[in-house]
Amino acid sequence: MRQRERRSRRAAPLRRAMIVGLLLTAVTAPAAATAAADDGGKERDVRLVYCLDDSHRAGLASAAVRLGLLKPGATADGAVEPTGGPAAPMTLTAWAERRDDDFGRACDALMAAGSESPGSAPEGEGGWLASLLTQWAQLPLVVLGALLTLLVQFWDRSLGERRSFKKRLETSRQTFRSAARLYLAAYERDPKADHAELLAAREALTGAFAEVEGTGARGRAARRLADGLPLSQRLPENGEGVPLGSDGRKHEADRVRQLMDRQLPQASDLSRTFVYWWWRALRDRPTGSGV
């Protein structure tokens, strides 16, 4: 059971990181799809302008024939016949419209062969700059995703630590309360009642208090509770040199019970969030007197 809980806690940051990644993907995917569609439209416009220009029509027809996209004998001025199935002769412009994929393939080959394709332009003409600008445009999303992942992991780790501390604190508090009640009941009957079990429970509770560090309101409250925790020693057997009777011992025991009833509920506050202790510090801060 404990191993499953540990595996679940270890997997929690990964699950949250995946959720963050999916959210970022959902946010950026429409923009990326729109950008891809725009790039595709611009690329087709470049092909139409370049390859259907009068000076490049003959080269386009020749490239399409060599690639097996048009039947041999196709020219720039005459009708062309596409391959791959029966098709009526058509102009080169009509072929570009009806067989867009074939036209794009032939046009890309023509531009690449002539080294005039905007996509194959030398880096000095701006290709590397466009790529760099694209990468810089994506950098904020990458940084945001990394920051969100770290934030989720930090929050998950802090939440796990607070839960673990709360469990230890509550266990120690209840153990001390039970041991104190047993000791006080035994003390009322016998002033020499065993104090060892209570002392061990008290040390465990003060150890939990010591886990709270810092000089803030939470740390001060933990130290105050540790210093004021009763029953660090046996309750007295005598009062003013005279052995305490049953009434005297009951009076001492009731005094300790009242003290515990005031202090122990405050121990649960140590597991509260920083927001609560920020409010406590603000509430307890002394206000200056106005003039």
Structure description:
The chain has helices spanning 2-51, 57-66, 92-98, 100-114, 127-189, 196-210, 217-228, 246-267, 274-284, and strands spanning 238-239, 242-243. By secondary structure, it is an all-alpha fold. A two-stranded antiparallel ribbon has the order 1-2. Helix 5 runs antiparallel to helix 8 (246-267).
Short description:
With 291 residues, the chain is mainly α. 70% of the residues lie in helices and 1% in strands.
Let me know the number of strands: 2
**Through-space gap between termini:** 64 Å
- List segments where confidence is low: pLDDT < 50 over at least 5 consecutive residues: 1-12, 31-37, 116-126
Order of helices and strands: HHHHHHHEEHH
Inertia-based shape: rod-shaped
Can you summarize the main beta sheet?
Answer: 2 strands, antiparallel
Relative helix content: over 70%
Percent of residues in β-strands:
under 5%
Average pLDDT: 78
Query: Count of helices?
Result: 9
| Helix-strand makeup class | mainly alpha
Radius of gyration, whole Å: 41 Å
Q: Strand order, biggest sheet?
A: 1-2
